[in-house]
Amino acid sequence: MARPYLYITRKLPDEIVDEFRNAFDVHMWPHEEIPVDEETLQHHIQKANALLTMLTDKVDENSLRVANHLKVIANLAVGYDNIDLKSARDKRIIVTNTPDVLTETTADLTFGLLLSTARRIIEANQFIKSGEWKQWSPFLMAGSEVHHKTVGIVGMGRIGSAFARRAKGFGMEILYHNRSRNVEAEQELQATYATFDDLLEQSDFVVCLAPYAANTKGMFGKRAFQKMKTSAIFINASRGLNVDETALYHALINKDIKAAGLDVFENEPINKEHPLLSLNQVVCLPHIGSATVETRERMIHLCFENIDLVLKGDRPKTPVS
Ligand code: DGY
């Protein structure tokens, strides 16, 4: 029997992919750092039984029009806003993502981003390396305290809760805002539910971990930043489109808020001329929330496992509902 046709939209490590060559007829985009172009993706979608996609691949109604054999799209991310779920459902294509295996890793990075932004760690590192450190002084690179402050988490799902556990270890008071109440977080972490506005007004740190959806677009805009404390630090590690970056830039230069730590951007990669990158009080990372070797390997394995299950006619481990 012919092996199912699998198209992988980015070059993944041969050591992992080779494990699956007996089971699948594997075709793979040859570049690690360049996303697949539309034409190539279309060409393979026409033939494929399974796709292993990245968050940079836009899989929409148009690209799925030619998907006549496709049974499963395994997205190498917990987020799946790059895939048009309705069009996939209409074509009876199952979409899977990679939750759980990246939760703790992404929470580590988010907390690290908060610490780096509050304590000016990246700026201080640059300061030394560019030869500017002439003398110790009492307020040299003095930042904001983290321990025992109030953190407001917007998006209290798996990653939000894992982040809250870290915050708890720092003695922080935890507020959260979510689509629905997270009773576990309330009981285990003494997290307190707050309306969006109350959270913005009361938090020293506002951390966005909400997945992107049409109704979260630009939720952190001018109004939200003006509600925050002038000493507030804003962290975003979910999706860039949740933030109005022009409003964020103005909030920072007008001192409506103090600083921001960003792992994600409206357009990725962000243009190096983007005004946000010119600000010392902004710490920027290139969307590396789940980027540890161990986690990325777990994510890839989970994608293969999901593909295998669907093609065998079973329920995948982590379908997108
Ligand atoms: C995801 O999995 O959606 C993350 O953004 C990747 O780091």
Task: Please tell me about this protein's structure.
By secondary structure, this protein is α/β, with parallel strands linked by helices. The chain has two domains: 5-99 and 293-311, NAD(P)-binding Rossmann-like Domain (Rossmann fold, 3-Layer(aba) Sandwich), CATH 3.40.50.720; 103-284, NAD(P)-binding Rossmann-like Domain (Rossmann fold, 3-Layer(aba) Sandwich). The chain contains twelve helices and twelve strands. The strands form two sheets. It has a seven-stranded parallel beta sheet, sandwiched between helices. Strands 2-1-3-4-5 form a five-stranded parallel beta sheet, with helices on both faces. Helix 1 links the parallel strand 1 (5-8) and strand 2 (25-28). The longest helix is centred in the last third of the chain and has 19 residues, at 293-311. It starts with a strand and ends in a 10-residue tail after the last helix. (2R)-2,3-dihydroxypropanoic acid binds at residues 55, 77-79, 102, 287, 289-290.
| Ligand names | (2R)-2,3-dihydroxypropanoic acid
CATH architecture of the largest domain: 3-Layer(aba) Sandwich
Helical residue percent band: 25-40%
Shape: globular
The overall pLDDT average reads 98
Low-pLDDT stretches are none
| Sheet of most strands | 7 strands, parallel
Enzyme class: oxidoreductase
GO molecular function, one term: oxidoreductase activity
Protein name: D-glycerate dehydrogenase
InterPro entries: D-isomer_2-hydroxyacid_DH, D-isomer_2_OHA_DH_cat_dom, D-isomer_DH_CS1, D-isomer_DH_NAD-bd, NAD(P)-bd_dom_sf
